[in-house]
Amino acid sequence: MLYIDNPYTTKLVQLSKLHYISQGKTPKEHLENIQKACTYGAELVQLRLKDLSPEQVLKAAEEAREITTHFHAQLIINDYYKIAKEVKADGVHLGKNDSSPTVAKKYLGEYYIVGGTANTLQDCEALIAEKVDYIGLGPFRFTKTKYNLSPIIGYKGYRNILEELKAETPIIAVGGITLHDVPEILGTGVYGIAASGEITKDFSNIGLFRAQLQAPSSNEQVWIPNQNK
Question: I need a labelling partner for 42 at 20 to 30 A (CA). Which of 21, 156, 212, 219 fits?
Fold first, then answer.
């Protein structure tokens, strides 16, 4: 678990090394899977609902907040930053075609996590300029969970981007990642992993992911970035 001390605010942001991105054919299935993920020890889940009305997303987000609160897990809402605030989630994750992180941060205030999606070095640099709390960088490999997939990054891509970036903003690798990929992905310098299919098919994989990520406890790691960045 990472504590991000943002020099532009007074907040300390807890950031797990493992993000579970919800899956399901219906909102009910997403919620059932979030419940299972939390039962197996997920510390951070992202509610990712597509092609639904804001009203449907709000209803699901309210239920997801109840589940995550019960298990003391963090809830990130994909895309809908206003809904994130309405249900008192822990933050929002913004895609490249969603609202600006700057706009979302201004609306949410300093105590919410704001993450963003990146596919290239230039994307990462733009998000860092907007002071996001973390970057979801991918895809690592081909995945069916996302339409209009960007070119895959792979191990070499992560290594090259992080070496060029030289930034302290946590990078979360995402996109078709399996348990077998984790050691080599971590070797590229990324902070953590976001997974969906590998967890949904077997929720006991959460414990295996966390063991490989060396994140057995919520309170073992504290990271304070350079205050002069």
Answer: 156
